[in-house]
Design a protein that fits this description.
mainly alpha; elongated
Amino acid sequence: MIDLEKHIMEHRSELDSDLPREGHEERFLRKLENKPARRVNFRHVLQIAASVAIILASGIVIVQQNKSGNRTAENEVLESIMEADQYYTTQVSQRYEQIREFNFENPEEKAVLLDEIKELDTYQQQLMNDLEANPDDERVINALIRHYQMKLDIMDQIIYQLNQLKTETENQNEKKSV
């Protein structure tokens, strides 16, 4: 490292110059004149043409397989959506029955509650119509699943609150009877 610094210090005037060394242009022109003409090798051209043909054929095969694969993938997606729909519909029905079986003091409150739960089905039907129109739109699929999850959460919360009311009422009745 010290030798390099020493060399740079000794030849600083030569290294600071922006101009190339004397005779550079003549040497460069001589090298250009001595360069042999480039010939096209027929073998290289054939190799390149064969490579391009293989790439194009592979692309065509992949595109054709992708088109047929899309149908299979769409069927699998639709099947999984239908399975999810069936699962959530079953869960919603079970919770609806649990709510319907509760004894309400006021039957009108029970009717209003059940009607409001049924109103959530109109949004679900709208999402199903959107899904039929756009079966591969992930936003619709995600919205449908979120709707089911939200509906189940709401129904679970209703069931929880009804159970709490039931236990509070039972506790109050026990205190009155004692």
